[in-house]
Each structure stands twice: as C-alpha cells, then as structure tokens.
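For the sake of transparency, this paper describes our internal protein records without simplification. The tokens are whole numbers drawn from a learned vocabulary of local backbone shapes. One such record is reproduced below, unchanged from the form in which we store it.

. . .
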Amino acid sequence: MQETKIEEAFKTATRDLCECYDENGIVAGRDHLQNYWARDSFFATLGANKLRDFKIVKNNLDLFLSFQREDGLIPMFISRKKLKPKYGLLSNVVDSNSLLIIAFADYIRHSRDKLFLEKNYKKISLAMDWLNKKDKDKDGLIEEGFFANWQGTIIKSGEVLYSNCCYYYALKEFAWLSKKAGVTMLEAEYEKKAEKTKHVLNLKFWQGDYYYDWIDFSIKNYFDSAGNLLAIFWDIASEYRANEIIRFIEENELNKIPLKTTEPEYGFWRVVPFLLPFKAYYYHNGFSWPWLGCIYALALNKIGQKEKALEELKKVAELIDQECVCHEVFDFEGKPVSSLLLKSERPFAWTAGLFIRACSEILGMEKKKSKQKK
C-alpha cells in the first residue's frame, strides 16, 4: 500500500515536471511562476536526469550559461517572454553559481555528454572563480549579502549554512568535472579546497544538536532545515551528527508536514517588513516545503535508514496525491497556502524534480516508456 501511493505520486510528479518543460529550459511553475528561476530549475534537473530527459536539461544549462556575466555570475532569474536576466535583489545571489555547477555535473554524470563538458568547461571554471572570490577572509567559507540565498524573505548575511553547503558540494563536483575534462591539477586543488570547507563548516557551525543557521557579527542559533539536511545528503555531517540532526527534527516534529523550514521561527525583525500582517510572513519562516521533505528522505536513505526514508517519502506522496499535483508550500494545517499575497505554485518543478530523484534513489523508480504505435 505504501509503495502504491508513492508510485501514484511519482506518476503525478513526472507529469508535473514535464509540464514545466519550456522552449529554453525548465520554468518554476505554470501559474504565477512561469519564468526561469535558477535554483528551482537546477534542483528540478536532478529529477529530469533520472527521467533521462537530457535535451531539456541541456537547454536549461545552456540558457543560464548564455546569460553568465563577464565576472562569472549566473542569473538568479530569467524572464520567459523577454529572456532578460536578473542577478539578485539587494545583493547578488550566491547559490545560483553553486547549483549550476552541481546541476552541470549531474547532467554529465548521467548523460556522459563529454562534448558539452569540453564546450563549457571554461564557463564552469569562471562560475567557480566567482564563488571563490566570495570567500573574502580566505577561511574556506563564502560570505553573502542580504537576500542572497533561497530564503529570500529572511534578512541574513555573512556566512550562511545553506549557501556554504552548496559551495562545498560545488567544489567537490568541480573537482570531478576537472578530472573528466583532463585538468588533473585542478582536480587535486579543488579536492583540497572542498575538504577545507567541510572542516571549517564542522568546526564553526556545529552546536551539539545541529549546525547553526548563519554567522555574521555573532552566531545565529536557529535550525535551518535546508542547510542541515544538505549537510547530511552531501556528506558534510558525520553519521553521529546526522543522527543528532534527525533526532532534533523528530523531537520537534518538523516532519509532521514535511518539512518545516526552521525552528524556532525567526523574530519579526528578521522578516521582510511588509509581510508582517500576512500569511506570507511564514513563507520561509515555519511553513512546510515538500522539496525539504524529499531531501529529508534522501538524507535518511544516505545513512542507511531506508525504512524511515520510505515513511518520509510517503508523507510527501500524500501531499501530492491529495490534490493530484505537486505544490510549492503548505501551511501549518497541511493545506496548500492560499492568501492575498501568497499562493502556492502548482505544478511546482522543484517539488516534482526532487520527488522523482528521491523515488529513483530510494526505490529505483524510473519513468515508464510509452509504447510506440506501429
């Protein structure tokens, strides 16, 4: 019964992800987010690669690389109709570059498209160089300005856990890409850089139960689900620390509706002021995102807890099955958010792509090939 529900949700997620395929890449959704968002589309490609939809993934990577700035920065957003890029709000986003490198490596690993790697290696190197320059104090961690990561309604700056987890994995993947491109000197250099970043993350951010959210002039002791789960999934956390993070999630019931963004909620001074009277106040501040639930399942599977991973995957499947669509975000009662300023996007490529990835890695699911008519 459990796997039947997951299989139905997998079919819906496959349909929804394909519905977000567009002429030039993958749009975030088909309601009010019908544009090319870097992090949405790059996370979504992790599912598209498992479906072997390599043409659309390649188009998406080509699109963002075509708008790479001369200094190496990748856009956070490209308008669908006018194809105009935007690189940030108050400051340039930092995860677009990391996620581009991660998505690019995942595409090469699945498609074995060496010609595409050779064609774009210089651009990928430039994207990596831009990231390295964000480590201004040379301690192995990048710094960022306001609104520079996925929690775009929360006021953070400095060294942010989520962004540095993405940076670490981008370093690892760039080392692997360098090896594939035959640049062995850079492979060795970036393996060392990645290990330094991993060491410093564990040294500075671990507080005993989980990793701190961010550090600027002081340590900000919030539990950030995205950063902590990516630390498990990308092998930053040891098995002991991974289990401590999972224990914290379970004890605080953050996975009741998988998965809450943070614990505790950020103070009102940390949220964009005009959102205070509205439900959108909780958008990145306590509401539940299925993509986080998918990463939680993947993290559990990564450390060998497959039964728990299936339970979490089933919870996400139930959210998909209840309305037969992949939603963006859910409220405290487990309903898709719908208010004056905020409405959950549907279908949502980020949810669909990561659910497909989780199903593939945990259960070995693949898209059923349609029968050809004779």
Remarks:
- DSSP finds twelve helices and eight strands in the chain.
- The beta strands are 36-37, 77-78, 85-86, 159-160, 214-215, 219-220, 223-224, 262-263.
